[in-house]
Write a structure and sequence with these properties.
With 156 residues, this protein is α/β, with parallel strands linked by helices. The protein has a single domain (2-155), classed as HUPs (Rossmann fold, 3-Layer(aba) Sandwich), CATH 3.40.50. The chain is 54% helix and 19% strand. The chain has 7 helices and 5 strands, in the order βαβααβαβααβα. The chain has helices at 11-25, 43-48, 52-76, 90-101, 115-121, 124-131, 145-155, and strands at residues 2-6, 31-38, 81-87, 105-109, 136-139. A 5-stranded parallel beta sheet has the order 3-2-1-4-5, sandwiched between helices. β1 (2-6), α1 and β2 form a beta-alpha-beta unit. α1 packs parallel to α3 (52-76) and α4 (90-101) crosses α6 (124-131). The longest helix has 25 residues, at 52-76.
């Protein structure tokens, strides 16, 4: 099974990688595609950059850097993976990569935005849930330690 993991370099995306590793440790046979999607250059960057290739190189390097921690987790576990850095709209880029690499599943998290904010801004997860040709597994963010402590105190 080929699993696509969108990685933005945050601790939350590493939580998703750890969840995927747990599935493998419980018997799932899988290899992974780690994906980082960089935003397209804005007008200011395009006008001020001396060379469009410089923008592309900087963007690609930033994406590669964002993937490093997730890549290290998978490599340390002995799991096969590929990486891809692309630019553009995250949801559409991931949809294209699902097809291009023949992925069977997407594992991703949400950023914990409220319903109204997600409706106004759109949501990569929401778009993928609706448009992806494969299942999309949403991993809940880990609870904050103080939230766990306050729940424990309330239970007493």
């Amino acid at each position: 099974m080929k699993i696509l993991l969108p990685i933005d370099g945050t601790e939350l995306s590493l939580h998703e990688v750890r969840f995927a590793l747990r599935l493998v440790s419980e018997g799932l046979q899988a290899n992974f595609l780690l994906v980082n999607v960089q935003e397209a250059a804005n007008l200011y960057e395009i006008v001020t950059a001396p060379d469009p290739e410089v923008l592309e190189n900087v963007s690609h390097a930033a994406g590669e850097d964002a993937l490093q921690s997730a890549l290290a987790l998978l490599q340390n576990a002995g799991i096969a993976c590929e990486t891809e850095v692309v630019s553009g709209d995250p949801a559409h880029a991931v949809l294209e990569l699902i097809e291009q690499y023949g992925c069977d599943l997407v594992i991703m998290g949400t950023r914990g935005r409220g319903l109204l904010r997600s409706a106004l801004n759109g949501s990569v997860a929401q778009t993928l849930l609706h448009d992806a040709p494969v299942p999309v597994l949403i991993v809940k963010p880990p609870q904050e330690p103080e939230a766990i402590d306050s729940d424990f105190e309330d239970a007493r």
